[in-house]
Amino acid sequence: MTTARTPGTPGSGPLSGVRVVELAGIGPGPFAAMLLADLGADVVRVDRPGGPGLGIDPEHDVTNRNKRSIVVDLKTPDGPARVLDLAARADILVEGYRPGVAERLGVGPRDCHARNPRLVYGRMTGWGQDGPLAPRAGHDVAYIALTGALGMIGRPDEPPAVPANLLGDYAGGSLYLVVGVLAALHHARATGTGQVVDAAIVDGTAHLSAMIHGMLAAGGWQDRRAANLLDGGCPFYGTYETADGRYMAVGALEGQFYEEFLRLLGLADLAPARADPTRWDELREGIAARFKSRTRDEWTAVFEGSDACVAPVLSLSEAPHHPHLAARGTFTDHGGITQPAPAPRFSATPTTVRSGPARPGADTAAVARDWGIPALVSDDPVTDAG
Question: Could you confirm whether 139 is annotated as catalytic?
Answer without folding.
Answer: yes
